[in-house]
Design a protein that fits this description.
alpha/beta, eight-stranded parallel β-barrel, five-stranded antiparallel beta sheet, 18 strands
Length: 351
């Protein structure tokens, strides 16, 4: 065999092994996000963790936001309950859009994030985390700053025998992979929430199909995060007004159906907006249109099957978003266990 041909074959074999290693290194097991500002579990939620065999909880601890004085924490989690001791806790930190638009020191920010995660967990009776996940919707303009932050955070975690993960949105699959140990592919919030003509901004198969083919060649191990939540999008004169979780569109005294997903407000009423810790907001007015969005079991199954077909390893860990009784009760619990990959524990009769 000619030396040049031998070198080519060796290179191709090495590349194949590397790709397989990336696939095999993707984390496994059943997982869920917890994304509220207070850690307080209902009996139903505690039972779900047990019966569904949840092994990992990605626990949102705080956001990083930019203020006049610089970057700092916001929306820190208040601990009023505890998670089971046999569940791995992965602290998750959300970075506010645009927070990294200026070249702040990646070294100091990485240390600050990790130190705050350590402190929040250990002060509330948990061990220092072996993994931290950072969530940021980077773009071409701030990718360099964010990747530098990830490199520094990964180095710190590696020095203590841990690892770093990051979220990856569908539109980012066509961009260079971030410098993390693996990514959580966010297969939700894919549509334009402010567009009155959008049918489902949570999960739209047409939009998913536009990006998902890039999974095959993506150079980072991936887990898959799927939505099990619903929300109400309020429009006034075709202008986006708010995300409102607490509205009940089935209240026939307050709303009249326009079609299968749109409802017209008939009276004035309070409007608690998502993201408000105190539940404050504004008001809904007669004539306002509410678009109720949720994701059917059939759509979730279709998306997961397409991911398995393109890149099976990415379905080794499914993370459902998120641990919330109202959201979970929308689905049959056997279906959720199927999406999660099965369970070694039997579901409770009360669930």
């Amino acid at each position: 065999m000619k030396p040049v041909l031998l070198l080519v074959l060796i290179f191709l074999l090495a590349a194949t092994i590397a790709c397989r290693r990336e696939e095999n290194d993707a984390p496994k097991g059943r997982a869920v996000y917890y994304w509220r500002t207070t850690l307080r579990l209902s009996p139903y939620e505690k039972e779900f963790l047990e019966s569904a065999g949840i092994e990992t909880v990605y626990l949102h601890l705080f956001d990083v936001v930019r203020r006049e004085e610089g970057l700092g924490p916001a929306n820190s989690l208040l601990f009023h309950d505890t998670l089971p001791k046999d569940i791995e806790i992965i602290p998750t930190v959300f970075i506010d859009p645009g927070a990294l638009s200026q070249p702040d020191s990646a070294d100091s920010l990485a240390s600050a994030i990790i130190n705050r995660c350590d402190r929040m967990l250990t002060e509330n009776g948990y061990s220092r985390p072996k993994e931290i996940q950072i969530d940021y919707d980077w773009t071409g303009s701030d990718r360099v700053h964010y990747f530098r932050l990830l490199e520094k955070a990964r180095d710190i975690m590696h020095r203590r025998g841990g690892r770093l993960s990051t979220t990856v949105r569908l539109h980012q699959l066509s961009q260079p992979a971030p410098p993390a140990d693996y990514g959580a592919l966010m297969v939700y919030n894919v549509g334009n929430i402010t567009d009155p003509d959008e049918n489902n901004s949570i999960l739209n198969l047409r939009i998913v199909d536009r990006y998902i083919c890039a999974l095959r060649d993506y150079r980072l191990p991936l887990a898959t995060a799927l939505p099990v939540y619903s929300w109400n999008i309020v429009f006034s004169d075709d202008r986006f007004k708010a995300i409102a979780h607490s509205l009940d569109v089935r209240d026939t005294a307050m709303f009249r159906p326009v079609d299968s997903i749109h409802y017209r407000a008939m009276h004035y009423g309070p409007l608690a907006m998502a993201g408000k810790r105190d539940g404050s907001g504004g008001r809904i007015f007669p004539g306002d249109i509410v678009r109720h969005e949720s994701v059917s079991p059939a759509v979730l199954e279709t998306v997961l099957e397409r991911i398995r077909k393109i890149r099976p390893g990415s379905a080794g860990r499914v993370i459902i978003y998120h641990l919330d009784e109202k959201s979970l009760r929308q689905y049959d619990q056997h279906f959720l266990q199927k999406i999660l990959g099965g369970s070694s524990r039997q579901p409770s009769r009360d669930l």
